[in-house]
Amino acid sequence: MVSMAKQARGSSRRRPGHSRARRWRIWVQAAFLLAWLDPLMLRVHTVCSPVFHCYSCPLATFACPIGVLANFSALGQIPYLAIGTLLVVGASVGSLVCGWACPFGFLQDLFGRIPTHKFMLPVWLGYCRYAVLGGLVLWIPYVYGEGHPLFFCSVCPAGAAEGALPHVAGLALAGQAIDWPGATKIVILLVFVGLALCTWRPWCTLFCPLGAVYSLCNRFSLVFVRLAPEACTECDLCRDLCHLRGPSERRAGPGRCIRCLECTGCGAIGIGTALGPRRKTPVAGAGS
Amino acid sequence: MAMVVQRVVLPVAAVLAGVAALVYGAVYHRAPVAQQEIEEQVQEEEVSKTIRVPVPVVPGGGAGLSGWAGPGRNPGPGGEAQPSEGAAAADGAEAPPPGMAFITQTVKVLESVRRSVTVTKIHDVPEPAMIFDITVGGIAWGPGGLRRTYAPGEPPPSLCPT
Known about the structure:
The structure holds 2 protein chains of 2 kinds.
Chain A: H1 2-12, H2 20-36, H3 65-75, H4 80-93, H5 96-100, H6 103-112, H7 128-144, H8 152-155, H9 157-173, H10 183-196, H11 202-206, H12 209-217, E1 223-227, H13 237-241, E2 269-273, E3 281-282
Antiparallel strand pairs in A: 1-2, 1-3
Helix pairs in contact in A: 3-4, 3-7, 4-12, 7-12, 9-10
Chain B: H1 2-28, E1 30-56, H2 85-91, E2 100-126, H3 127-134, E3 139-142, E4 145-148
Parallel strand pairs in B: 1-4
Antiparallel strand pairs in B: 1-2, 3-4
């Protein structure tokens, strides 16, 4: 009996760090970063991208959906294009975008790769993302307009890293007078860069409003992470592979999962689609 | 059944709703945006002009015009008008007809004038153009509704609105 269990365990798990996803993810993230950075200088700012990428970046190809939501809220308009983009992408792949395409997530991943001791943030802190989405992105702009100091774009660390600082650098290189950005978002950026050394994806797990939208979509998206129960030996390898695991969780859960697919290093976990062959039990990011 | 609804019907419905929102936003959704534009307009204005009016010279009245009270009025007492050589020479222009003299007078006449005026026009701006404008701080909420913060042809306010 014991030997059978060991055999099953051996067949269902791979060695940690040997998932294809882990090998490819950083390159896919880099390729997406290149796409967001407008290599063809198209500057298609009439279209929303599905990622958190400041449209004020001198190299931004598309508009940021969160920036569009906040600004349209300040203007009293409904942003159908941004909502449509988020619905199509969110309902299709959920937070797979966060794990594989988001440039600000990629930046945090790069800092996270620096070998330092990482601590886990409490799971309940993830609800702050919904507060940021409802408060800073929708309510404050709608009631107080874009001049309010807590207007989301005024405090956005991605805006500081991808918009404000490159803009300042561009002005300096062009020999023009430097228009210094607000200090608030620079400080917030520095705080989160520091936090990224100590914990995985601090912005994504704590405050990212786009992550809040996608984590809601995780519960019903067409693509999901699935668990094959017959192959699971409860070895907890998935928990060990998951960067966002809680102390008592086997996996991040749909609310926190960024679908980095690191957990697919365990053979019992893979990617499933709602329209594909008969589905197994969905796990992280699939409503479990 | 509940699982099927959650895993198939709900995401497909959400994707379709997203596509519908994208189509509506890209094709149909427009918002009125006020924009100040400089326009050349032809306006009729009253302009002061100095004109020379030939009047009959009054015989025996010196210059013959002392009694003249202005256009549209009868000349004063003094009899028939006489040509005034002095008046014609002083004008330095062509001589008046015989028995007449020129007087100069300032009158107001209507004239067409071209002027550059700033007018506020309301445009129905499609949503993609609005998205582009907000990325450069080009649309703001002003009194009476939305207004564009820069004129057509001008560079946008800033690449980094915040």
